[in-house]
């Protein structure tokens, strides 16, 4: 049934949470600044207390298609998810997700539940080289402009976009592609979350400006250089042997305040000394910067010099037994227990373990063939995740590629007993016939798309991790309490389908509902994603076949016409009831319980 009919009848309707909160705030509190769905700058200047003749445009990044891309961020997705039980693994217990399809749609679907919940995002987007072919179906035509409410675009505007986006290495096209996806990524990040973005020289400068706008220049954490190859390219003036990772925080101040826990684990091998408080090592207390760095100068225990601490602090540490006088200097006891509770700050230069050639070899060890040209090194992903997450956090990668991020999460959990969860998004990019990846898919009866490689890598990597743990645990002399647990090596796979929608007959103009072929359980999962109250990784309990499912005291109902009034009453009595609007009609039962149910679209 149509959404507006339920709204007109006074029902509470729930739909995809993809609203622009700032726009909504302005409409509700300052309606004078918006007219005909456009922002009136003069009125906004009045609200801000700015002189009318003062220009509010400042330094920033401008590109062809910018308004189009911004509108795409707010546009509701026309996709739904179909649970793929065949490609999933450990479907009843896993907390991991793999979403196939355009990541713009996937991010919008994730938004209702995962807004402010993702601790770490890592992406390796297209680098916009002459070799890259864009496979993402973003539309920037007249018909799409009308749908987005951009009626003020001229023929010249469309010609300019068409020319710009079809040009090889188009900066405009690449930025218009990235803009809505990064806006959605910002929405998903938790307040203490971070995003790592791999990029090369082609778009690094533009990406920095774009991210400064989206995440805030003040939330820039660092530009990490990653050495990606050892060989020298003789066809260049200077051989480029590194890529970049731009690192941004949702709120840099939060990260700074907890910086002791943001970093990599310290080396705990050198704590050779011991007292009644535990193992420790001696570290310097002198201030090597001297007067230039403002270090205090005084004599303590007969030794004169520049010190890291004030004389008062030094005396307090000495009274606690922390300061030790050696033959020529003073040192401080640094206990292993303190080191274990903090992390080591990393630099912006990452070397040695991060060569692409090594990553290719490790992937080949899992898949048995050379199926992916440039996979990301697993050690790179492990470092990024260890740097930024705790053991129960969620990690998202919406350019999943070969699935390195998923394997990195599983391996970290296997090592430290963590329960990190991953969400991977990968478009069904066709693999060209004749490529090794195509042959691999054919030999293994897989669909010849990149997401098949993603999923197969995750399956085999998980099995390999489980086998390694089993082998380690079987060693003689291993105590039961020292044995490792196999982490969550499963994942739920969801395919992307056209959503149920209203269509008008070209001849009669009559409106009808075009239902897709989604199965009942998948319809329930889509409701769970849209409502946003329950974890989409949970398995809903079936109460009434083909109709009623529940998680806790939340009841999700589809095909409501098949349900008796008594079943409705029982569900309402026990919890909150959500009705699938597309399979419902305004019958007497729904009308009777109107105040107790919510209709989901």
Shape: globular
CATH class of the largest domain: Alpha Beta
Number of domains: 3
Q: Work out the number of β strands.
A: 26
* Strand percent estimate: 15-25%
CATH H-level superfamily title of the largest domain:
Vaccinia Virus protein VP39
Distance between the termini: 10 Å
| Low-pLDDT runs | none
Largest sheet: 10 strands, mixed
Question: What layout of secondary structure does this protein have?
Answer:
Blueprint: H1 3-8, E1 12-14, H2 21-29, E2 34-35, E3 38-39, H3 41-48, H4 66-74, E4 79-89, E5 97-100, H5 103-114, E6 118-123, H6 142-148, H7 155-166, H8 171-188, E7 189-199, H9 204-216, E8 220-227, E9 242-249, H10 252-257, E10 273-275, E11 278-284, E12 297-300, E13 303-306, H11 311-319, E14 323-325, E15 330-335, H12 336-340, E16 349-350, H13 356-367, H14 378-388, E17 394-397, H15 404-416, E18 421-426, H16 436-443, H17 450-473, E19 491-498, E20 501-504, E21 511-514, H18 520-531, E22 541-544, E23 548-551, E24 554-557, H19 565-574, E25 576-580, H20 588-592, E26 597-600
Parallel strand pairs: 1-26, 5-18, 5-19, 6-7, 6-17, 8-16, 17-18, 24-25, 25-26
Antiparallel strand pairs: 2-3, 4-19, 7-9, 8-9, 10-11, 11-15, 12-13, 14-15, 20-21, 22-23, 23-24
Helix pairs in contact: 4-8, 5-8, 5-18, 7-8, 8-9, 14-15, 15-17
């Amino acid at each position: 049934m149509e959404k507006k009919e339920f709204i007109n009848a006074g029902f509470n309707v729930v739909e995809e949470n993809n609203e622009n909160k700032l726009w909504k705030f302005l409409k509700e509190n300052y309606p004078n600044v918006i007219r005909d769905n456009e922002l009136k700058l003069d009125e906004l200047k009045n609200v801000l207390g700015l002189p009318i003749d003062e220009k509010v445009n400042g330094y920033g990044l401008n590109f062809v298609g910018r308004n189009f891309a911004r509108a795409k961020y707010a546009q509701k997705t026309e996709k739904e998810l179909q649970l793929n039980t065949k490609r999933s693994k450990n479907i009843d217990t896993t907390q991991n997700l793999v979403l196939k399809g355009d990541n713009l749609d996937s991010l919008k679907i994730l938004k209702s539940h995962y807004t402010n919940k993702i601790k770490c995002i890592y992406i390796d987007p297209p680098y916009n080289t002459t070799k890259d072919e864009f496979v993402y179906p973003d539309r920037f035509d007249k018909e799409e402009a009308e749908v987005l409410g951009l009626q003020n675009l001229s023929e010249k505007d469309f010609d300019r976009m068409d020319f710009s986006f079809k040009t090889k290495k188009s900066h405009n096209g690449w930025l218009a592609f990235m803009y809505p996806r990064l806006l959605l990524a910002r929405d998903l990040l938790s307040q203490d979350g971070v995003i790592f973005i791999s990029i090369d020289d082609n778009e690094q400068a533009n990406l920095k400006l774009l991210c400064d706008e989206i995440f805030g220049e003040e939330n820039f954490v660092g530009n990490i250089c990653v050495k990606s190859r050892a060989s020298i390219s003789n066809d260049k003036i200077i051989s480029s042997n590194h890529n970049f990772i731009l690192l941004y925080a949702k709120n840099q101040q939060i990260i700074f305040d907890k910086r002791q826990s943001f970093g990599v684990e310290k080396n705990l091998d050198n704590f050779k000394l011991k007292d009644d408080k535990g193992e420790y090592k001696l570290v310097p207390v002198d201030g090597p910067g001297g007067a230039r760095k403002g270090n205090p100068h005084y004599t303590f225990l007969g030794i004169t010099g520049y010190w890291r601490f004030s004389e008062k602090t030094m005396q307090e540490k000495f009274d606690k037994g922390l300061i030790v006088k050696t033959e020529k200097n003073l040192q401080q006891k640094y206990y292993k227990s303190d080191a274990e509770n903090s992390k080591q700050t990393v630099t912006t230069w990452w070397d040695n373990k991060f060569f692409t050639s090594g990553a290719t070899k490790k992937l080949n060890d899992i898949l048995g063939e050379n199926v992916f040209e440039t996979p990301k090194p697993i050690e790179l992903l492990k470092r990024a995740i260890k740097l930024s997450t705790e053991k129960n956090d969620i990690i998202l990668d919406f350019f999943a590629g070969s699935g390195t991020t998923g394997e990195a999460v599983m391996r970290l959990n296997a090592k430290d007993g963590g329960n990190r969860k991953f969400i991977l998004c990968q478009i069904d990019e066709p693999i060209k016939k004749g490529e090794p990846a195509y042959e691999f898919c054919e030999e293994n009866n897989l669909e010849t798309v990149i997401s098949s490689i993603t999923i197969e890598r995750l399956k085999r990597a998980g099995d390999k991790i489980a086998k390694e743990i089993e082998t380690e645990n079987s060693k003689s002399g291993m105590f039961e309490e020292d044995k490792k647990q196999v982490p969550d090596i499963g994942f739920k796979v969801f395919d992307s389908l056209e959503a149920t929608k209203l269509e008008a007959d070209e001849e009669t103009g009559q409106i009808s509902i075009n239902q897709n072929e989604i199965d009942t359980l998948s319809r329930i999962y889509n409701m769970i994603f849209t409502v946003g109250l329950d974890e989409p990784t949970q398995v809903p309990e079936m109460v009434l076949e083909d109709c009623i499912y529940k998680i806790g005291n939340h009841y999700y109902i589809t095909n409501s016409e098949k349900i008796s009034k008594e079943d409705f009453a029982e569900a309402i009595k026990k919890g909150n009831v959500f009705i699938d609007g597309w399979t419902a009609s305004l019958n007497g039962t729904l009308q009777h319980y109107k105040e107790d149910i919510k209709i989901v679209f």
